[in-house]
Design a protein that fits this description.
The protein is α/β, with parallel strands linked by helices. The chain has ten helices and seven strands. Pfam families: adh_short_C2.
């Protein structure tokens, strides 16, 4: 059901790859709620995914951009404002990648050049996005900027490797830039710490199925789906959350507040 929560709002959505992507679901819901937006992803990801199909569905244009490149981001924000006919009201940063995870490097044997790439793609790109937006004065007052995180920023998880450090940096950047952007333009900046979600990126982490099942048994409401996360993003883009900023918002069915669940106890007692 649509409520016209984003009627007249304009934005940029990073990271839609295929119909399993959270960014894909956010784009669909934003379109339903009346928003206009530009879709973007790295050129390689665009070749691997189906973003043009989503663009057609949402009547959106696609602008390729490497989020680690300030030049690409400058072009993206300039073109987006031209296409949409004005400044932006929301931005979704749904970007994360670790060469060490992809190539199966253990945490005690990391390739440090790849580690730096992890941080650049998954965290520093968020700062670059906001710095470009600020310098171009591309955001409307009371705009909303979101990034997607995971509880591994605070807790250790096997096989999540250097992505844990990237998520911790991502959340720190949100707080620091949230303070700055709030003072400058009343723009709010938040991260959403989402349940394990069966996206292309998520399922690429070793042991993901065990993560997923454990979190589902621990959470009183069960894991939050990509569709659930999209709905939450829409509320944070809307005017209903104008004073929520610099927060890491836990969207995990209660997982983060549970010590142990009855389901896990029963399973351990078998």
């Amino acid at each position: 059901m649509a409520y016209n929560l984003l009627q007249g709002k304009k934005g940029i959505i990073f990271g839609a790859l295929n119909d399993k992507s959270i960014a894909w679901k956010v784009a669909q819901r934003a379109h339903e709620e009346g928003a206009q937006f530009v879709l973007t992803n790295a050129p390689l990801a665009m070749r691997m995914g189906e973003i043009n199909k989503l663009a057609e569905e949402c009547n959106a244009q696609v602008i390729p951009a490497d989020a680690t490149s300030v030049e690409d981001l400058q072009n993206l924000f300039t073109q987006s404002q031209e296409i949409l006919g004005g400044k932006l009201d929301f931005v979704l940063h749904s970007i994360g990648m670790s060469p060490n995870v992809r190539k199966g490097k253990t945490y005690g044997d990391l390739n440090y050049e790849w580690f730096q790439k992890t941080l650049d793609v998954s965290a520093l790109s968020f700062h670059k996005v906001m710095q470009v937006a600020e310098k171009q004065d591309a955001m409307n007052e009371w705009g909303s900027i979101l990034a997607l995180s995971y509880i591994a920023a605070q807790r250790s998880f096997p096989d999540y490797s250097d992505m844990a450090q990237a998520k911790a940096m991502l959340e720190s950047i949100a707080r620091s830039y949230g303070q700055r952007f709030g003072k400058l333009k009343k723009v709010r900046v938040n991260t959403i710490s989402q349940s394990p979600t069966k996206t292309t990126a998520g399922t690429g982490v070793g042991g993901f199925d065990a993560f997923f099942e454990y979190a589902d048994k621990m959470s009183p409401l069960g894991n939050a789906s990509a569709e659930d996360c999209a709905n939450y993003c829409i509320t944070l883009f809307s005017d209903l959350t104008r004073l929520v900023t610099m927060q890491n918002l836990l969207h995990d069915g209660g997982f983060s507040s549970v010590g142990i669940s009855e389901e896990i106890v029963n399973q351990m007692n078998k």
